[in-house]
Design brief:
CATH topology: Purple Acid Phosphatase, chain A, domain 2
Distance between the termini: 37 Å
Strand order of the largest sheet: 1-6-7-8-10-9
Mean pLDDT: 92
Helix content: 10-25%
Length: 257
């Protein structure tokens, strides 16, 4: 794991973290409107937004993939890669971290080609490449917010498995926020944790926010084959504040409505 520091240098009273992952460029079930809504929000608030790229930007099916693999793709790997570069390069200055997902791992496993690393090079943000996971620090006013960012992994398909995956992140890193993708579920999980101090009789309670970051896929394909539950589509934004420690979860669709 590495630690990264955001390039944000503004003086706004609040800014937004927009985690984008599980886009799956090339999947037959990719719906551009979910991604466009997130990018539209970022365009409107460019100086107040930071982007976390959460992995599975590409479908990257191989003949050994689960489901119908290459037969469920709209276009091949090279085009998926080029579309991702074309989409995110205009936002390169806003990207604070790039982690790879299990779909990118398919290519690495079969060919040893580090496709996420090459993507980071192509958009000019190799310094934001976190490989599997990273801690990202953002200074807003006098407050530093720390985030643990990981594509994710779960042992099941239920929401409880996603919650367990999020909670397990707190066993690896102590942060204000935790961002996990992979499950295509979009929800937040506020928590508090007691923090010891060197004086006084009372502990300090630190607020934490755990976020499952959503996807750009419609229902169908492997999810329907396995009977997975329907989930809310799209992405979110987490608003963090300069004058008090505060983290607020928003659905992107609500912000651009």
């Amino acid at each position: 794991m590495i630690q990264l520091f955001s390039r944000y240098k503004g003086n706004y009273k609040s800014i937004f973290i927009v985690p984008i992952g599980d886009v799956h460029f090339g999947s037959k079930y990719f719906n551009r409107k979910y991604l466009d809504n997130a990018l539209r929000f970022i365009d409107r608030n460019r100086n107040r937004c930071r982007i976390f790229l959460m992995g599975d930007l590409l479908e990257l099916a191989t003949k050994t993939s689960v489901g119908r693999s290459v037969y469920d793709e709209s276009y091949p790997t090279q085009k998926q890669f080029e579309v991702a570069v074309e989409t995110f390069k205009p936002y390169a200055d806003l990207i604070d971290v790039i982690v790879e997902g299990n779909h990118e791992e398919r290519i690495i496993r079969d060919t040893s080609f580090e496709i996420t690393q090459e993507f980071a090079h192509r958009i000019g943000r190799y310094d934001a490449y976190g490989k599997f996971n990273a801690i990202v620090n953002i200074q807003v006013g006098d407050l530093m917010y720390s985030s643990y960012v990981w594509h994710g992994a779960t042992s099941g398909t239920k929401e409880t498995s996603a919650i367990n995956g999020l909670l397990s992140m707190r066993e690896k890193a102590f942060c204000h926020m935790y961002f996990m993708g992979h499950t295509h579920k979009l929800f937040d999980l506020p928590r508090e944790i007691a923090v010891p101090t060197t004086c006084g009789n009372e502990v300090v309670k630190m607020k934490q926010l755990l976020v499952n970051t959503g996807s750009a896929l419609d229902d169908g394909g492997y999810g329907d084959q396995k009977g997975l539950a329907y989930t809310r589509k799209g992405f979110c934004a987490v608003q963090i504040f300069a004058e008090q420690r505060k983290m607020v979860f928003h659905y992107i669709d609500d912000l651009v409505a």
